[in-house]
Specification:
The chain has 241 residues and is of the alpha+beta class. The chain has 7 helices and 11 strands.
Length: 241
């Protein structure tokens, strides 16, 4: 379920895909009719090629050597999992179709088609935009930042809900920080049988953690100046009773 909050000021699909590659710990590879899972085995070149380090006896290595060069012979799948425990933690999936070639002790994967699937829609990522994009500057710090916010600053998360449209908070039983990037923060609104996500854009992008801290403080100041959502007021009243 998607709530009505604005989704402006969000990263482009190409940058989102590059951020997933930079932070994903595992990937699944389907090639030559087989499927293998690799953990901590991939890296990404500046041009977006995925470099996969596999054992010498891997069936994938044999398939890459035997496959006709330039033909789509493999599909890589990556999952973006929310760092904070919550319902439906997979935020997005990324598929890259293309071909492997042995290269200096590893397999170099060149994509011929890239698809990013998020809850709102699936989009085909432009290959040139993907090659030119860079990961979000906060991508590698996101997990630490969100878990710290959820574990140590639950009061701040609740205060941020004052910036959420009241209709999006109807029936809410819990709010968790779902994602953060240089453009804004996303909150997960959980209900008894459903959930929705709302986007809180920053007034200007953040290029590092110190700038992110300032952007979040601005949101909190705006939230402090706003009235408490009626939906949460009712929940507190019901809970006290």
């Amino acid at each position: 379920m998607r709530d009505s909050q604005s989704w402006t000021a969000a990263p482009a699909a190409a940058q989102r895909a590059r951020s997933m590659l930079a932070t994903a710990w595992s990937c699944a590879v389907t090639a030559d009719g087989g499927r293998e899972e690799f953990v901590g085995a991939h890296s990404v070149a500046d041009d977006g090629r995925v470099l996969l380090h596999v054992p010498e006896d891997s069936a994938l290595l044999t398939a890459a050597i035997c496959a006709p060069r330039g033909e789509p012979s493999a599909v890589l799948e990556f999952a973006d999992v929310a760092p904070v425990p919550m319902r439906s933690r997979i935020r997005a999936r990324l598929w890259l179709a293309g071909w492997f070639a042995p290269d200096d002790g590893h397999l170099a994967f060149t994509a011929t088609r890239i698809v990013l699937k998020e809850p709102s829609a699936a989009v085909v990522v432009d290959l040139d935009e993907f090659a030119a994009a860079e990961p979000d500057p906060l991508a590698t710090a996101e997990a630490r930042l969100l878990t710290h916010l959820a574990d140590c600053h639950a009061d701040a998360v609740e205060r941020l809900t004052r910036l959420v449209e009241p209709d999006s908070l109807h029936g809410a039983v819990r709010v968790q920080p779902l994602a953060v990037d240089r453009h804004g923060m996303t909150l997960r609104i959980e209900r008894a049988r459903a959930h929705g996500d709302v986007r809180l854009p920053f007034h200007t992008p953040a290029d590092d953690v110190s700038q992110l801290t300032e952007r979040v403080h601005v949101l909190l100041a705006q939230a402090s100046a706003a009235s408490c959502p009626r939906a949460l007021q009712r929940q507190r009243t019901d809970g006290d009773g």
